[in-house]
Amino acid sequence: MWTVRVLVLVVCGLLAACGPKPEATDAPVMPLLFNAADIQKQDKLLILIPGSMTPLGIFDPVVEWRSKGYAFAAYRFPGMDGRPLDGPLDIATAAQTIVKLAERFPDKQIKLLGFSTGAPIAMLAAKQIGPRAQVAGMSSAVEFGGGAQTALRGVDDILVAAARAQSVNTRKVWENYFPVLLFGRAGARSPERADDIARITSRPKKIVVEPSFNIFKAHTMALVGWQMPEGFTLPPEQVHLYAGTADTVFRPRQVRRFAKSIGGAPITFYPGLGHLLYVAEPRVFDDILAFFEQG
Question: 19, 89, 135, 170: most buried by Cβ count inside 10 Å?
């Protein structure tokens, strides 16, 4: 047990030493981006909530939904998308911020699309907003952030990536770990996935931020010890989860258990795909749109 703890501290220390460190600021800033006039013109308000170390650009494919009556709002995590690193993420506070926005537009259908940590935020907000809200949770985080199992898998994957890179340089380690987030452990080493990995990693636009220690801590600590409120449920028609069967961050078994605990939320699984569904299988957005359009 002590060996594991030492390895965790070593990995975190190396990443902290090698990575850039954004400065914290006390200046308050509105976490939500939206255009009130545009929302008034549309029938539906789609609120986008990314995950840890994930830029809002992951949601670019939904822009074309505007032609189907959608206006957009986006929640920015601390240190991301122009929001300063003004403190750690708080899941309940983030959800309440979104609820207040929805209350400004009581005549709109509210659709919430959350990725990873963003999914629980969306669920908490939907519960308060009521039946006019629907949630799509992509690669949803689970209670306690998956606990020790998720933490140990993450440490193991990072150590393997460092060994393959033969370096503790953050960028080199990240380049070796990123394929695991796309296609899981087996897929990351599969020759059949080599072309897909090369195609995705060669894209000029960032789809995940290379983790700095300060941002990593500000985002991920929100899940440590986190639980849904006692008795929390959402009707199955109000929430749908989307997950990869090769996700090493939140494993299918954990996702199934979480879905059951919140009222039996239906899950669409994508075989052989990892945590970053939005880039490994862009058609997930088509499936999410179909769910929203049924509501």
Answer: 135
CB 242 within 8 A of CB 137: yes
| Spatial distance between the Cα atoms of 183 and 180, rounded to a whole number of angstroms | 5
70-75 and 44-49 beta bridge pairing = parallel
pLDDT tens profile 99-151: 999 999 999 999 999 999 999 999 999 999 999 999 999 999 999 876 556 65
Domains of the chain in start order, with CATH, are 32-147+214-293 (3.40.50.1820)
What tokens does 260 get? 């059951």
Helical H segments across the chain, by residue range? 2-18, 36-41, 91-103, 118-129, 147-165, 170-188, 194-201, 213-220, 252-261, 277-280, 284-294
User: CB-based contacts of 141: which residues, under 8 Å, 6+ apart?
Assistant: 51, 116, 117, 119, 120, 223, 250
Q: Which residues of the chain have pLDDT under 50?
A: 1-28
Structure pTM?
0.86
For the record, the structure tokens of 258 come out as: 């979480």
What's the rounded Cα separation, in Å, for the pair 286 and 68?
A: 13
**Residue 74: which residues within 8 A CB-CB, separation 6 or more?**
32, 33, 34, 47, 48, 49, 50, 56, 59, 81
